[in-house]
Amino acid sequence: MAEEFLRPYQANLVGAIRRAFAGARRVLATLPTGGGKSRVAAATAAAAAAKGLRVLAVAHRLELVEQLQAALAAAGLPAADVYLPGREVEGRPVAVGSVQTLSRRAAQGWDLVIIDEAHHAVAETYRPLFEARYVLGLTATPVRADGRGLGGVFEAMVNGPTMAELIEAGYLARPRYFTTQGKPWVEAPRGADYDPREIDPLVRRVELEGEVVQAYLDHLQGQTALVFAVTREHGRELGTRFRKAGVEAAFLDGQTPEVKRAEALARLKDGDLKVVVNVGLFTEGLDVPTVGGVILARPTASLGLYLQMAGRALRPAPGKAEAPVIDVTGVNFRRFGPAEGYGAWTLTDGVVEPQAVRVKGPAAPTQGRQVTQVQEGSAPLLEVKEEAVDRKRYYFSLLKLSAHRGYKPGWAAHKFRERFGAFPAWAWLDEYRAQEGGKDAG
């Protein structure tokens, strides 16, 4: 049975999706990066196929199509057609493919179309897919590139657990944030995000390349890491800097041949390749749990992009309880704060403001957080740690999670002690009960 390979929260999300389709044709489901969207897609596809429905799962990159294909097989649907260039199809009732291959085909023959990384679904190439009887979109970040929501293409939204909840439950590694507090070196963008062509010379001027390599040596040496660069030229320069420092590194982008991309990812998984520098390639769908951390060498004004980049290192692996998220620009963390602070998504066609979707903690490192210097230099790298005010908020989130699972408040207290080495104050439980009116007090 397809749901046997699902985690409990994934099974709950599959059920919520099924109920949402009772009142809507186009449903959007959210699940944080690393939460297992491919498994949710596959279980939904298997349930639909068991009812005799024709199902098509779509993604926009080869790696994502392959992940969907593997997930369908794990869910008991190995015999699926594959819509990719050069591949023959046999008219099977379940298929997977790339949106580029399917963009000129009407989807009227499919009962259910599942769109992975659905924040891209506003693009013209996806329009034929919405002719299907039902459409399910899956994404960690329901925000368009221009900052607006996806209410223009979907009718209903269901949310899975937040990133913070998955971290506390042990399904994601805990991030450790490092950033700088120098003077801002780049102005706010005029559009939805920075223009890479305008940012590239500024990055060179502040010499972030050296900061990137030093950050790796100080906090990730010997581990594998992803680095997000601004442009191809910037990425190549970073790769060269790493190799000169004795670190095996490769640069990949959308123009890198698929064979070389697959080879580099295999080496990254094995640990033979320590660093992959990329431009716009692995902000989505990269499933390599052994990645030790990420380094943000590019500024962004896009909340969705920030959450996607920060989440790349959070998939758990043996011996990996924490993962450094290093923002050498000093811009990203100052603007957005911890990635696990978000998740209160609502379906809208308007601009999604970061403060509107925060569920935990303040956005800025100077508000309710302690910044501790850990590296000397002209642009010192700083680790951001939680202060007491955030501990109370953290404890409240544990109490809410324990109530949701039917646990007693003692579970939340012990989870709090595991992290901070001491039990929470007794007064906090009374405060939480008063705040919630007893409904989530456990």
Strand order of the largest sheet: 10-11-9-12-13-8-15-14
Radius of gyration: 22 Å
Low-confidence parts lasting 5 or more residues at pLDDT below 50? 363-378
Query: How can the largest sheet be summarized?
Result: 8 strands, mixed
What overall form do the CA principal axes indicate?
A: globular
CATH topology of the largest domain: Rossmann fold
**Separation of the first and last Cα atoms:** 33 Å
Q: Helices and strands, in N-to-C order?
A: HEHEHEEHEEEHEHHEHEHEEHEHEEHHH
CATH architecture of the largest domain: 3-Layer(aba) Sandwich
Mean pLDDT, to the nearest integer, reads 87
What is the share of helical residues? 25-40%
Kindly state the number of beta strands: 15
List the helices and strands and how they pair.
Blueprint: H1 8-20, E1 26-30, H2 37-50, E2 55-59, H3 62-74, E3 81-83, E4 94-98, H4 99-102, E5 112-116, E6 134-139, E7 156-159, H5 163-168, E8 174-179, H6 196-205, H7 208-219, E9 224-228, H8 232-244, E10 249-253, H9 258-270, E11 275-279, E12 291-296, H10 303-311, E13 322-327, H11 332-336, E14 369-373, E15 382-386, H12 388-405, H13 409-420, H14 426-436
Parallel strand pairs: 1-6, 1-7, 2-4, 2-5, 3-4, 5-6, 8-13, 9-11, 9-12, 10-11, 12-13
Antiparallel strand pairs: 8-15, 14-15
Helix pairs in contact: 1-2, 2-3, 7-8, 12-13
Structure description:
This protein is α/β, with parallel strands linked by helices and 442 residues long. It has 3 domains: 2-161, Rossmann fold (3-Layer(aba) Sandwich); 170-385, P-loop containing nucleotide triphosphate hydrolases (Rossmann fold, 3-Layer(aba) Sandwich); 389-436, no CATH class. Helices cover 35% and strands 17% of the residues. It is built from 14 helices and 15 strands. It has an 8-stranded mixed beta sheet with strand order 10-11-9-12-13-8-15-14, sandwiched between helices. A 7-stranded parallel beta sheet has the order 3-4-2-5-6-1-7. Helix 1 (8-20) crosses helix 2 (37-50), helix 2 packs across helix 3 (62-74) and helix 12 (388-405) packs antiparallel against helix 13 (409-420). The longest helix has 18 residues, at 388-405.
